[in-house]
Predict the 3D structure of the following.
Amino acid sequence: MAIFSSEKLIADKQQLVQYFQDGCTPSDQWKIGTEHEKFAFDNETLRPLRYSGDKGIKRLLLELTKFGWDPIFEHENPIALKRQDNSSITLEPGGQFELSGAPLATIHETCGEIAQHLEEVKSIATNLDVAFLGIGYIPKWGLSEIEWMPKQRYEIMKNYMTKKGELGHHMMLATCTVQVNLDYSSEERMAKMFKIAMALQPLVTALWANSPFKEGKKNGYLSYRSHIWSDTDADRTGILPFVFEEKFGFERYVEYMLDVPMYFVYRDGKYIDAAGESFRDFLEGNLASLPGEKPTLRDWEDHLTTVFPEVRLKRFIEMRGADGGPWTNLCALPAFWVGLLYDEASLIEVEKYIDDWTVEEVKSLRNQVPAEALATKFRTSSLRDVALDVLEISKNGLKTRNKLDGSGNDESHFLAPLFEIVRSGKCPAEDLLIKFDKNWNSSVEPVFREFSY
């Protein structure tokens, strides 16, 4: 992989294509990165934590430095933590705690990392009488109860979101997701992986659906988080039809990114509002907010983080379709994708499986799944049947990888929670709804106790 200076000026579009090309990684060096978000709440009041105060997000960040995390500041405010292994803890707009894991070689390692992280944050949280909840949408409180974190880029996004959809602030403040990041070895391999991942995101949303409540009541969806994305900002979200075109590759993704309106440009420690402006104009030195300036590679990398399709390309591929959930489901997501995309035989098999799926069918699945999950009809069957087929392919891929832990177990056992979901026919949200109706007296408060980490 080439080493770029983030301050190097971009000369032309080809340099942006080369940026992705230089992300190609030999298959024997492929890693796995898992990211997951969770809500931090006060055990006494169940309210989401504010930034400051004895039980605040700021204190949580500073207390975690005892575990070898280095704080990152925006002005005087700690807004993230970083370790030398390239893992980080960042804050989503509503204070959602996100672990961005280090690139690791096996699911055993990445699941161990998740467990270690949860133990660290729990040890701090216990002393402060706060806790963490993994779920796709905050179950009890309205947006007015959630404080915006002091990050300047979020202020720009907050203002722009209201111009592009009705639910953007819900996405920013009140949702949690889990995602996995995988490497690619070539442009051709990236295109195959991207197409498969895009086609199967509705299935992932169905399997991980875990957000049936809003402001203490049923919201009518199984993945309200996924529904929110359908009315956030159509310019930068959803299914990307061009991924299914025969000639899809790095250049086509660059063209897409050049057409996505910008949010900001970072200069001298400040975020300059460029919301709605064009990166194409930036390349020509015609950006209204920075007249005469041309972008650096840092600007391009920042711009890549401002799109939110179901699958996203950086120098790796991000799978973005899952609700936050319990620890076992956090480990199951990287297992699911690694089994499908890192084993050659499984990649070929799943590619054939989805090869005749049309863009219209995938879009239809994406629109239906938030409400129906595994019961969503697909052709002559349902997503539940598709799930069983795809899980078997993934399981075989993990067995072929034959990455063993200290007890001799391969990675396929991490899929067990998903097989149980398919066997029962109930996604996590449906289990929550049963408890809500039968055990919790129509109250969402028990979810904070029974499903906290």
Remarks:
- Residues 31-244+312-450 form a domain with the Creatine Kinase; Chain A, domain 2 fold (CATH 3.30.590.20).
